[in-house]
């Protein structure tokens, strides 16, 4: 390969690397303003029937529906959890769907946790934690799994399904939170998703 071709290849690689450093993912942005005004809708289920998937027994705890903005997403392939829930979505609604607020908040996901910190004081902590959540998504079908691959940071989505508890015969348990006001360990929703719609 001649030096000229090597030079052009080096420039191409450098440009690609620079692009991904500046724009690490394809994010959808909006004008300032609340995009999702409605709160998540939850209805408790009493004595619900369970069902199985592979080694897991799934029991619904509540019917659950929400519209939300995708603040972040993370795919997982390691651990028992990934066998039933391959992706986490950090979702926001109300003030946490407003571009003006989100531009002042750094959001990350790691090890099934959702982290945030403010660049400036955009909103009180209670507003942030009360209008966003990290949700462990269990796709009910291969079609839902495919639709999850279409989601980007900033997507507006509508999800319908159940908050669930998952067990195995060996005694392993994973249980959803049933509150939007909690934080820390056990505060994430474990969400069996029957329907997913992109609404942007």
Descriptive notes:
The protein has five helices and ten strands, in the order αβββαβαββαβαβββ. It is of the alpha+beta class and 200 residues long. Mean pLDDT is 88; it is low at 17-24. The N and C termini lie far apart (47 Å). The protein is 21% helix and 39% strand. The protein is globular, with a radius of gyration of 19 Å. The chain has helices spanning 3-22, 80-84, 99-102, 125-130, 142-148, and strands spanning 41-44, 51-53, 56-75, 87-92, 105-110, 113-118, 132-139, 156-167, 173-175, 189-198. The strands form two sheets. Strands 3-4-7-10-8 form a five-stranded mixed barrel. A two-stranded antiparallel ribbon has the order 5-6.
Low-confidence stretches at least 5 residues in length (pLDDT < 50)? 17-24
Largest sheet: 5 strands, mixed, barrel
Strand order of the largest sheet: 3-4-7-10-8
- Sheet-strand content, in percent, reads 35-45%
* Rounded mean pLDDT score: 88
Q: Tell me, what's the shape?
A: globular
Rounded to an integer, what's the Rg over CA atoms?
19 Å
Q: SS-based structural class?
A: alpha+beta
Helix amount: 10-25%
Order of helices and strands: HEEEHEHEEHEHEEE
Question: How many helical elements?
Answer: 5
Compute the separation of the termini in Å. Answer: 47 Å
For the secondary structure, the number of strands is 10
